[in-house]
Design a protein that fits this description.
By secondary structure, this protein is an alpha/beta fold. It is about 40% helix and about 25% strand. It has three helices and eight strands, in the order αβββαβββαββ. The chain starts with a helix and ends with a strand.
Amino acid sequence: MNSMSSGGGRDRLQTSSAVRGAGLVGAAVVLGIILLQVIDDGPSSGDGGTTPGITTTTTGASTTTAPAARARNEVRIKVYNAGAAEGTARLESNNLVALGYQVDPPADTQSRTGSVVACKPGFEAEAEQLAVDVGPPDLGIEPFPSTPPEGSENVNCIVLLGQA
């Protein structure tokens, strides 16, 4: 009977060691993932490195590098009704506020056909994000007008909601 009880103790020790070993392996994997994330998020140096705020896309043999869009709360917008139904500019302004943009009060401007997003130079990536956020399938992106609508002096982008 004594041999049985000492054999059972060895089984428990072996099981306990296996559990501890599995726990150590699991902890090492988690630590490795965390370290890879920290290294991946930090700026790289040397040849082939990346610059913070730059998005690099590789497809096949070509690589495209474009500035990453600023956070929505860093972009100031003004929405204009340029021929859309009454209240459309206010509704869109409220939607953009809910997404986190800084939005000036909406206004009316010269009527036009079609809706567009226009951002000042340096806000091209934000124009693309804003066009997706506003969302009509026919929404275009245009350069910021050389004669901008009244009230757009302190904004980065404007949304012109025109007639369909």
